[in-house]
# Entry
Amino acid sequence: MKDYTKKSKEMGEVKLFWTWSSPYAQRIAWALKLKGVEYETMYEDLANKSRLLLEYNPVHKKVPVLLHNGTPICESLVILEYIDETWNTTARLLPEDPFARANARFWAKFSDDQVLPSAFHAYVSQGVEQEKAKDHTLQKLDIVEKQLTGKKFFSGETLGFLDLVFGWIAVYLDIVEETSGIKILDKERFPLISAWKENISCIPVIQETWPDREKLIDKYRHMRQYFISTAAVKNGKAS
Amino acid sequence: MKDYTKKSKEMGEVKLFWTWSSPYAQRIAWALKLKGVEYETMYEDLANKSRLLLEYNPVHKKVPVLLHNGTPICESLVILEYIDETWNTTARLLPEDPFARANARFWAKFSDDQVLPSAFHAYVSQGVEQEKAKDHTLQKLDIVEKQLTGKKFFSGETLGFLDLVFGWIAVYLDIVEETSGIKILDKERFPLISAWKENISCIPVIQETWPDREKLIDKYRHMRQYFISTAAVKNGKAS
# Structure
């Protein structure tokens, strides 16, 4: 990849408020690296959020937040489009054609409104509820699978916007499976998503920023325990 | 407004699958009219969806769907951006500046993820549940109110993307109040949203396409009855 650092420095100061275990934050780190944007990482402990995070994202109080020359941008899909429009001279994430752009936005919304919440539900539940959430996730993934017909990446022959959006399937689904004891990404049912996972994990920028598997498993195991015990207390199943 | 019809005809055939009582579909009709795009209205009876709607929006099976030269585009926010990018020579809906665009997308997402579902919940519930949903809606609207500080429209001095997105507050909230017996848009609590409602209702394109109040009330009264009885059956409160 060319060195775009000089150009990106002229564009001012960039900070990314994130935590390394968030799939939403991860896609922003990928986009900035793909664009060659130099940025400062502001690590957030979500159990003890910083004053700055609450100031910059007062509505949702969540990572990721991109701070560009002191101006905050929130919501990961919004940030991805901002990055693409601001560092717009090369490595475009979204295609140029309006219909292809609409298509990418449609599936990004499908990822975040339908597939990711469903997989999250399977991750933080147990028993019958977990089975239902798993089935729901599989049905959503059946739809995603079809989008890869005849393609190496969601965007076609090269990595793009939708690959970053669906990147959580490549990195985090495996961790969800490992920590919650369910199998979701079966190679026979999802041959195209499985092949895509291999393709995306070979991209240098993605490889370089892939979170440590053991650390992720440890973190996700603890988070699951926390969510399940919180739900049990809420439902009156524990004191 | 200038006559952009000739130019829009050169852009091919446009059809809008919609129903007149849907706030999501209404924003698309507004956008097409603002752009001067000639289109054919394909009215959908949501109790008996057409074969074409199911073919063009197989994932969500919902209106609105925009069909442009035979290609379907789904999800109202995605369609709005498509319209803005395709008929791009005039009356831009989104601002040019990347930060202002990100800001518009952030609040559009807030409308559709947070405020609209909350108001819908208040509309289709009763008793304590309705009171809770109403309070939730008021809190979300407090946040929206602040966005209008010092502005005539959400986009500034002229109508834009965010005004079309939040347009449901101007047209449908009144109908929700009337049919579900709750007051949400109190002028003392929401002076800026109330003033904006007056401003947007004076725009000719909005005025021309404002749905008939009595017809809307009748439709929304029946829909509420349907949702409440369906929920009662689901909860085992009715046979």
About this structure: The domain at 5-86 of chain B is CATH 3.40.30.10 (Glutaredoxin). Chain B touches chain A at residues 59, 68, 71, 73-75, 77-79, 81-82, 85-86, 98-99, 101-102, 105-106, 109-110, 143 (CB under 8 Å). Residues 159 and 184 of chain B are 24 Å apart (CA to CA). The radius of gyration of chain B is 18 Å.
